[in-house]
Each structure stands twice: as structure tokens, then as C-alpha cells.
Sequence to fold (444 residues):
Amino acid sequence: MRIQVRRTGGFAGIERHAEVDTAGRPDAPEWHALAERAVADGRETPPIGVPDGFSYQITVDGKTVYASDPRLTDEQRKLISRVLKEGA
Amino acid sequence: MTTNGGFEPVFCTIVPPHVLDRLSQADDPVLAGPARRTLQRDAFERTQRRLTTVIGAPAVALPAGAEPGQPHRTVYDARHGTDLPGTKVRGEGDAPGKDATVNRAYAGLGATFELLLKAYGRDSIDGAGMPLDATVHYDRDYNNAFWNGEQMVFGDGDGEIFLDFTIPVDVIGHELAHGVTQHTANLTYFGQSGALNESVSDVFGSLIKQYTLGQTATEADWLIGAGLLAPRVTGVALRSMKAPGTAYDDDVLGKDPQPATMDDYVRTGRDNGGVHINSGIPNRAFHLFAVRLGGHAWERAGQIWYDVLTGGELEQDAQFTDFATLTVKAARERYGDGEELEAVRKAWEQVGVRTL
Fold:
């Protein structure tokens, strides 16, 4: 499974993106479960965010959903921070 | 981790509301269906925000015994979680505690309140003594600060790229100014009106810093977020109002993407249509105007910007030209046919924005 996260906006207006390919990873099942829940709660179009809030684009195996701070589900928040931290 | 400070050709991740409105009226159900559903989904959040604007934030009632013309500050600690507002750690009049972040937030709220009241006769964000709430220590290593429609929220930064977001007083002022905009012109946070919303926050954020330090326009650094970048980052701040595009140039962060004139206006779907990018243009216009007038920028230059923001004529979807034209009008109304009028016209001309 290929999980991509793109973060835009924020006070600094600096964009970040990263991705994780779970193939061959020992923790792949955990990633899959997290990604599936994060995508299930995502929106098909970008929500109107709050001033200076981050906007997120989560793409899992080609399917893209959107979310914005501060209204993220716990799974979305966890997935986003893990991908941006551990991804390449 | 990779970052990308550059911009790709228009990749419309965000569809502006006016486009959705048009699509929803299309005869073709393939076009109209999704647009209608999107509008319905956004309706709830828009209504929430509109209600906050029209009837005021939920906590608008003054505390018992509170007097008008005095700040009513509360600082909360999210304790690295994301529930808002979090645990109350300092109320109005409480002595400073051990947490420097809490103390900075409290002081920054006070500085902002004071500028609004002393310079513009405005009693808090809504002009009616609205309590000022801020939450610090939001999430872990959180590289951001934002205004959620009711209060300010500050992250600690990750220490690698960003430090604590309460460090620069102009960042605190910037967030509170979003509150003032929400309660007045309510500029739509997308495209040029969104860039104006951002610029107004940078202008008043910088003015709060200048007021706190007692600086004149020529003495001020006109930087937004000075002291926020971690030592390893090559840069001086997040934005420069004096020289947009020069605040940082770093191998991790990329280069400051702000344009200084309309010739370099950036068209993008990202960042709500480049609201933190194209704000460089009106930011520089304000700087040029203030420096040409000299003296304290919050006095005449700030007054004219404040008049436009709160005057009732600035439309929610205002473009740069609309805002610029209203500053010319405000300059004439407040100061007559003098140096202010000529200086403001010249400033907009220098950044390539037409005034009518």
C-alpha cells in the first residue's frame, strides 16, 4: 500500500509531502488499518479551513481525500504525523 | 521527509465557492451533483463560522465584575493534546507562573488588546470587550499557530525547524487580527480576498510589535516570525513585509515564495489559493506607505488600514484593487488632500496594484 500525505497552508505557508510504501514492512497491517480508517473519514473535496490552519491531502493507492485542522479524526492525525515523520 | 517550497502549475486542490455555485446550477447532473453535495457538506461549517461572526463567539459574555476597556484574558494548556480549549492555567489578573509559553501568550494578548484600544479605540476583537482566549502546547512538535474562529491556538514547534510559536509577539497579534477581520470585513479565506485577510493580520501583527517596542517605521524590522526559526534554518523570519521573498532560503524549507509586486503574482490552488504567498504584495504596499509617512506606523498608516477593515465598505470577496481603492478613499476622508493621499497612491502603484 502506498500512502501519501501532502500538507499545505499553515502560518508559514510552507508545503510538505511525504509517502510510505508499506510493501515488505513488518508493521504493514497496522499501517493498512490506520490508512483505511483515515480515508473513510476524509472528504472528497477540500473543506474550508480556519485561518492559518493546515490543509491535508491523503492519498492511499491513488484514492485522495481531504481534511483540515483542527477537525481531524484521531486516525487522520495519527496517520498524517506518522507519514510526515517516517515517510520519504 | 521532503519539502517543496516551489509551485507546480495550477493544480486545483481547492474549488472556490463561486465555482461550486455555478456548477451546482448546471443542467448536467454529472457536474451539478457533486457540486451540490460539496456545498451541502460545507454548509454546516460555513453556518458555524457565520454564526460566530453575526452573533459573536460563544463565550462573549463578560465575566462577572469585568469592566469595559479592560482585557479579559484566559490562557489554556492543551498539554500536548488536541482537545480545545484545554485546561485553564492563567486568568485575567493572575500572577505569572513558571511556564514562559503561558506568560508570553498572556502578555501578547495584553499587547494586542492595548494597541486596539489605545490606537483605534476598539474594545477587544469584536469591539465589545470579547474575552481573549489562547491555548498553548497544542499537540506534539506542532509547527503551527492558528485562529479557529473563536480563539488562538499555538504549537510548540518541533525544535528542528520551528521553535515555540508564542515567541514572536507579531505571531500572537497576527492570530488575534484574524479575529478582528472575522468580526468586521470577514474577508473570504481564498485567493486575493484571502491574501488580504492574511496581509491585514501581518500588518496588525507587525504594528503590535512596533507599538510594544516603541519603534518608528524606519526603525522596525517589518519581519513576521523573527525568532521563530530554529538555529539550523537559514533565514531571518517567515515573511518580510519590506522585501517579500527574502525571509529565508534554506535547503529544507526551500525559498521564501512571496512576490513583491503584481508582476510576480502566484496562481496556485494550494494554500487556499496562495493566501500566505500573495499577501506579500499588500504587505509591501503597507510598508512603503508607512515608511514614506515616517513616524509611528500604527498612527496614520495603521489608522487608514483600520478604517478600511472596519468601515463596512470592504466586501468579503474584495480583490487587491478594491482594498487599495478604499485606502485611497479612507486617506482622503480622514486626512484630506494631503501627503497621506499621495503616499498611499504611490505605494500601491509601486507594487503594481491599480487604485480607482
